[in-house]
Amino acid sequence: MDDRAGLGWIALELQKAKILVVMVFCLFFLSGPIPCLASENPLHRALRARTSLLWEGVCLRSGLERLTGTYQVTIFLDRRVDPDQQVTFAANNIPLDELLHEIAAERNLAVSYIGTVIYLGPPQAARILKTIAELCRDDLPSYSLQVRKSMQVEQSIEWPALTVPREWLSDLEKSRDMQFVGLGRIPHDLWPPGKLPPMPLTDQLTLFLIGFDIKLSPTSNGRALELVPITGKERLTRRYDRLAGRAVPLDRIQQIAPDAIVSYEGRSMIVRGLAEEHEQIVAAMHGPAIGINQPRQPQRKPAQQEQTQYTIRVTEKPIGPVLSQLALTLGLQVEFEETAIQDAGISLSQPISFSVKQASLTELLNAAVAPAGLTYELDGKTLRIVPARPN
Predict the structure, then answer these.
(1) Closest CA relative to residue 240, chosen from 292, 274, 291, 281
(2) What is the enclosing helix (H) or strand (E) of 287?
(3) With contact defined as beta carbons under 8 Å apart, do 388 and 370 qualify?
């Protein structure tokens, strides 16, 4: 077995918004407080958290579950994505939003967001997802009052392991006193356990059905929800008052939303396009967008290591791989003085155990090397490991 595979689990937990690192063949790093606004969507705050991550042959589902637990977010993985595929990926001190987009791109996937949920799935589905959700909300007035009330209730939903989606929707009909038409369009499938946070049922069902390329549509009498195929041509039409914000010339609109169709009627600008294109146009008219559906390229700042507190527990793991993993995550280049270490009778395969709580970087490194009779020299970004001098 590869020594690194034997590293098992190291957990560093969040200490007053200072740092969080988790490692199960993977390692996360979070530094610096996250600014927030009282009225801001908590997902927006989480997506700004600066993160480092190292995955080596990590199961995609396991890696995403750990991100979910670390940042207290909900990640919904499309049923068409193999959850057991092995992922090798590394990133250093970037926002979680950017990290998610990079992981997705590595696997030929894409990211979208609905409410407080992160969606990860095929690019064509991610591109249309938020638009489908908006159109579903636009359809609410076409439903009967009873259906409309059921669709607007915000409560969590969950399903156990081995759930059959078609049967789950049938149970939902009974519990919410509503009716679906076209359940036969959903093929047989078995799902792992899952949960969606409190949000309108329209959004929850949009996420639940997107993996089948199905959306909701009101029946002619508005008393039922029909499951119909997604065409991929769905677009939102919105009317904007051109005098209500900044004057944005047509060439600028075409630059930020090149696929949108724009026309004018008096002081109104009529736009037909994807939900994200509308967000960009609104941002141009009224200021920075609060939408989070497009990958960003923020400036990468070096981790403020000595201002960070660490809580680590390592049990019976080989010293060499442990130090290599820590150095890589901290953005350091490790060098072992192997000849001197061997002359001192020390093996880099020697298992060590140590733990620190709310420690500085210096305290962390001292705790890591001391059990093996080693010490270290930190020269800029170079971490040099040498034998400790006898007392």
Answers:
(1) 281
(2) none
(3) yes
Per-residue pLDDT reduced to its tens digit, 323-336: 888 887 777 889 99
**Which tens digits make up the pLDDT trace of 319-367?**
988 888 888 777 788 999 999 999 999 999 999 998 887 778 888 899 9
Q: Which helix (H) or strand (E) holds 190?
A: none
Any idea how long the chain is?
Answer: 391
Q: How far is CA 70 from CA 21, 142, 164, 195, 352, in A?
A: 9, 41, 29, 17, 26
| pLDDT average, residue stretch 99-116 | 95
Amino acid at 324: S
Residue carrying the six token digits 């919105």: 238
CA dihedral of 181, 186, 191, 195, whole degrees rounded to 10: -40
pTM reported for the whole predicted model: 0.70
* Residue from 345, 330, 338, 343 nearest 378 by CA: 330
Residue 102 burial by Cβ neighbours in a 10 Å radius (0-12, 13-18, 19+): middle
User: Which amino acid makes up residue 333?
Assistant: Q
> Which region holds residue 130: left if phi is over 0, alpha if psi is between -120 and 50, else beta?
alpha
